[in-house]
Structures
1.
Amino acid sequence: MEFAGLVNDIQASAIGEWMRSSLKAMPVVEATHVLAATMVFGTVLIVDLRLLGIPNATRAFTRISDELLRLTWWAFGLAVVTGSLMFAANANTYVINTAFRLKMLALLAAGINMAIFQGATLRGVGGWDVGVAPPRAARLAGLLSILLWVTVIMLARWIGFTKGYNFVVPDDPNIKFDF
Amino acid sequence: MAEFAAWLHATAVSQTIQSVGWIVPLVQCIHILMIGIVFVSSLMIALRVLGRMRADEPFELVWLRFAPWMWRALLVMAITGVVLIVGEPGREFGATSFWVKMVLLVVALLVTLRLGRAPASAAARPLAVGLIVLWIGVIFLGRAIAYDVEVWQSLSSHT
């Protein structure tokens, strides 16, 4: 199967090998991934809550979304890069892991929800940008976004408890640290 | 500290957390979600002090918008953190990252209180930058607890 071959090539790549053999690469990349994920979730949450009228509608929606979504996209880019590095280390295991597959689906759903919001719902923003409650479609988009991002983060954490390893971890790695 | 960890590990509540498979993953999820709220709320406050976010609003308004979310999420984060410590006391107390993380956390809270009281003082801008760096450090060290030897090498308290 061509897909399995591609995944295998990714795992066998020099980057995958480096991620597995470097002592510091995995902790640094994972920590950066968590940092990026918390940043995506926190910034998206502020925008989504504003759609739901929390805490109120006094600050213009477009203003809040413009000032925060820049941060969201930077953090998301960082999450994609670090996530790809983690994937390369153990690609064959990730693609058959249920939590990983569901996480990718939830990410896709979050993207579709955002695309519909940006492409359709946001066109009428002039009528509800400030001072009034956003329309039902906008509130629904905000609620869905919160639920989907919480799901993404929970499934992501679940991967770590379910994936196992498909390469042999030596019983006695005999690690020596020389300075 | 090792004796305390061993005692805690043997308690009924610790045994329960260890043996019920879904508790640790679920509590970790909540812990991470709360960090997202605490970190970004602190970031908003710090960026406002630096004039890079909501500069059209007075600091007071930004503080009132984000500080309550920060403190409440922090409370949930602390509770879930305690559950994780009780569940795996040796792993936490034995990690250099854990202790450095606790120190940075306390400093971050003191800096936040200071910013809330005196957002226009001469020290406010460097403190705001420091607050962002401190939270990034706390998040890094939180993940690094699982890799204490790799990260700290001979400085790791894991033996």
Note: The mean pLDDT of chain B is 95.
2.
Amino acid sequence: MKLMRDVYIAGVGETKFGKHSVDYDVLGRAAALEAMRNSNINRPDVVQSAYVGNGMNGIVTGQTVFKDLGMCGRLPIINVESACSAGGMAVYSAIKDVATGVTDISLGVGCENHSLHMQSGTAFAPSMSDIETMHAAVMTGKYAMRANRYMHETGTTIEDLAAITVKNRRHATNNPNAWFKGAITIEEVVNSRMVAYPLTLQQCCGIADGAGAVVVCTKEMAAKLGVQKPVKVAGAVVQSGPYHNRPRDITGDDITETCAEQLYEESGIGPEDVNIVELHDAFTIAELLYYECLGLCKKGDGLKYLRDGDSTYGGKCVVSPRGGMLSYGHPIGASGAAQIAACVKQLRGECQGFQVDPIPRVAMTHVTGGGLSGTEHAACTMHMLVSAW
Amino acid sequence: MSDNKEAKKAPKPDITFFHPDLLIVPENGDPPYLQGYRCKSCGNLDFPKPTLCWNCWGEEFEIVPLSRTGVLYSVTDIFIGQAGMKTPYVFGYIDLPENLRVFAQMEGEPGSFKCDDKVELTIGPIRTNRDGLPITSYKFRKIAV
């Protein structure tokens, strides 16, 4: 979107990701409170609007998150759903309020609890009204088809794909909020249970619970709150997936390519200037494809980019420094907001044990959302964030 | 009176065929085929049937039988599937000569398909319905060499 005035991130919050015995609202509340306190907000009447992203947990999710914080009745709370893009879209909506002058300070939250609501041993599927779902499509399978085609065209192997998991779990080793972390070998990844060929269990994001939250505001409000390290929102883009039933190249991703192009143009920042990226690594193949779709490397060079160490600590652009979804798991409504929270902490140099060095100045986030026949994804949300101190 | 009430309460039987506007299985034993929808105003051909032509918003369509053979663009074997689906099962994207891509289940053993295989339309069960009966729809299988 065209940002009509400058917008800054004042503070962020996130919960640990993993299996939680408390529901989405408790998680969302914890992340929201942390984000507000991180923004030096200590009373209920400061935030002027709130957006809450959630995928599967029911109705009036946002009001449930905020009900006893003394905020309900003081501000509009709007609930946002676009499957895996919901949390990113909630933050986008908060930014839009500030950018357009509707508010001076707003809050975007993403929260989800899957483990209390989902049958174990089953895979995510889009709505049953979808013709592909009727024919037994599952998200793992749709990504597996991307992997098989990519392997067919480039000679990439399962071992190559497994290297993405190995990298991201290594990144997460010292991250207290990541779920799966530390050393894992290529063999362990490849030999884990087959989910959808060639994607084994350790190549798939875990079905997790968690939340993230982001407070955005004007420059004046950030100063008034005494925020020491405001992060400037250099760009924010939401796109809907182009629909057609023609053959398309699924080793690319039309919606991600369009969304990234728009983000680079609007922010005036190119892929070569981006220091860290949190992207939609729900499955190993996705991260590999997105190196190319985001323009971090040329089309067809994704595997070389990985092997050359360009996407890890010390490389050209650290991809998934928090460990990505392959380490956090993917509570679908939460991930988009949690990615932004994690990037802000990196930009502020607050990631002891996994801090990117030198401290990054430019971070980018990317979440797609939803399986929908005729599209690659139903939605895509991206943000560009820059240190402003 | 009470009979009427009970009749109202009894749920309608779920579908056992998917979907009469998309898949034609001739009664004379001729091979089954898919129906494409060609917009009468702009000529855009689509499958499945669109709400209206997404190219020009035309509302009238000519029904066109689609090719029964195509190329398997990509494929996967599913070992953890939808709730209630027996695993493993196989699905893929089939590209038809009419420049259309169809998502379908594959009839054949897991591990037996690869990208760019030539495949043909067949029919078979894709899932069970709410009443526990199989639902028949289009599927694809390898063309015997």
Note: The two ends of chain A are 24 Å apart (CA to CA).
3.
Amino acid sequence: MSFYFLRRLNLLVFTLFMLAMASFGLAYLFPGDYLTNLTGIHFESEQQRQLYATLYKESDGVFWQFIAYLDLLWQGEWGQSFSSNQPLYQEVTTYLPASIELSAYALFVSLVVGIPLGFLAGLRHNKLADYSILSMSFIGYSIPVFWLALILILILSLQMGWFPISGRISLLYYIPLDTGFILIDIIRSDVSYKWDAFNDALRHLFLPTLSISIVTSTIILRITRRSVIEVMGSEYIKAATARGLNRYQVILRHGIRNTIIPIMPQLALQFTTLLTNAMIVESIFSWPGIGNWLIQAIYQGDYPSIRSGMLAVSSLVVIFTVSIDIVHKIIDPQRLYRQRVKI
Amino acid sequence: MKIKVFYRQILATLLTLTGVVACGGNHDLKFKDEGLIYCSEGSPTSFNPQLDTSGTTVDATSHQLYDRLLEFDPQDSKIIPGIAESWRVSENGLHYTFQLRKQVAFHETNYFTPTRHLNADDVIFSINRWRLESHPYHDIDVSGYPYFVSLGLDKLIKDVRRINGYRIVIDLNKPDSSFLANLATDFAIILSKEYAEFLLEKNQPQLLDEKPIGSGPFKYINYRKGRFIRYAKHENYWKHDRAVKQLIYDITPSSSLRLAKLMTGECDVMSLPAHSELDIIRDRNNLVLDEKPGLNVGFWAFNTSKPPFDNPEVRRALAMGIDKTTLLEAVYFGSAVKANGLVPPSSWAFQEDLRDNSYNPVLAKDLLRKNGIEPGFTMNIWAMPVERAYNPNATMMAELIQGYLEQLEINVEVISFEWSLFRRRLDSGAHDSVLIGWSADNGDPDNFYRPVLSCAAIESGTNRARWCNETFDEIIDEALTYSDTDTRAALYQTANAIIADQIPIVPIAHAYRFQAYRQGLSNLEINPFGGIRFGDVENTQ
């Protein structure tokens, strides 16, 4: 067991190390002075450059430069953005929560929709309900997210005028940024228009969440369905039925637990797919998240932002994946790794 | 039977959950009605319009945060009192005396609390900042005060004197008939001297332009670049008490997204509606589209400091190679008039009989060969990445020109960067030619000739042709010494002749100006000279 954790941890550290290395390499690969790409400062004088050259150990060769870079990364000194001149650590930490929030709600919606439908399809395997749910899921799975988002905007916003199409909340509501998660921030704030603002934020959340969760729901539905079919065909279910339990009792007592636990990591891992889709949807709905921010950075040739944005997002995904793996190992230690990653 | 119940339960849960998420509907939110959201096209470069001539900066700051000595009446473009209650010009035209209004309060914010009202010291401080190189605030920003320098105002003013707390005199070096108009432009704003001194003491003078204090109808709350600007009502505004409680700039670079937000009610007003989308706005009952001929010109400027574009013959050939009428139809959808010169028809200096190079690709090709431009010559056209009133779609125009020049066997590369980067690189003169333009800041024709083509404007970054002609400069200087419009118009015709002969730029169009907003807003007028004004806007819904 502890050997397993060590191996996971080792993998985590090594991957993060590689990511840091890649991001360091980017500073050299981007056009322009590498020190400017690292710090985000257009040096006005030689003295100023010298100051940063010492900080980043420019004269000591690439290896020590990298060590200095890691040290500064650890301290939260990520340099500053070309376009806003704000510290990147601060920028990333304001924009990343918005993306995580969107993905988290979308994941929640996908689970709430996908798992029950998956059960329904699995239990009615090879019947009409199964076929219709499955074909619907095929359609949902095949629709590109960006197209879906645009269609939703066209119908629900521009035609019907039901939902707003941009941002997290109407800018007229002034909500002080605290955690960076808008709904939590609204609840924690003490403004007079709290519930109006909350309502407004929910309406802003609706379309982006819907567009991302449709795809993920179909994936979750299919994972669940498969697991349900597998479990319902197994010996212990037959044994339970033979003991005289009716189908309802069988499902409730044996079916659900045995279906959900093995697929839990797969479900949680959808979060990373979600994050990727969220980045696309963010730029359509002008959601002030990390994806939108990265795209702006690319437009503006803001190399320090691209570097640190890439590092932050990929680190998040790696850390999340490994933690899910470890948590699952604790909950369900018997299962082999091979079985857990199978879809 | 039990199984059916189970399914039904699942179904019921699903339905409830969908209901929970979808709840929200279209509530009428009272709090929201007290504010105004303006979907603007870009981020301002600064919160002080003295530092930048771009329309985006002016729209965001000038009339919202600040006051000027004088103002333009948007109806008839006459000069009317602002902070100066009254003014007098000496007979020789060299001394201007201004009597200032009393009881004009500056903004009180969480970063500064004023202790006194606006007085002569603030006016002198604001003018001296851009005028005197020795001024402690002159070098705080590296922009070099482009508007004032391009018009030579820093050289024109000899002294600004304080007579008493509410009266000042400005002495000029020579008479200038456009001087009052220049004081009424969006750029000639009044800053707070008290705030400036407070910042100097704190050793953070740069904040003067980042966290502004003015006396206008709105005060600064916060700003996130590329996202929004938040202003709140200035409670002690001297003019009136009817400004809306909040004014928000929702920065939305894409014009179709701005329109979509206007349609869904996420914005109340949008900037620069695209010409191709005007009909959509007209068709909507709940939206209003205002239209006015604009004081602007869109042009194609050649970088005359770079061979072969330093040769007027080459420039003429290129000018003859494009068909302006087609450009007008394709890019402006007919809501513009063709430009033969710099000045639009609504100005008194407009020259009706000005001839234009007619479209003649055969002659153009001949002329190019004669001047040593071989087939396959490659040049670039820089196209603005943003829409401006004078050119709603520079990229498309560049591509059309690309097509025309292909017939002359010239290869064209269309180049575009993000707006602030674009202007920075343009300032360094890296372009061969650029599609850009100019919107007037005041009603005086000098405001076209001087910023666009004078030698001084190369340094200050508004002369995109980087063209310097001493005779031309002398003529436009001379025109300013007369106050009688006929004499001046005659001089500007001579200047037009020089431009037509040298072709540093190819004027393309004078576009109409549009403004779109939702029904229920009143007093929102198109300001023919630049910046939008929200101070008087009321929400009557």
Note: Chain A has a mean pLDDT of 83.
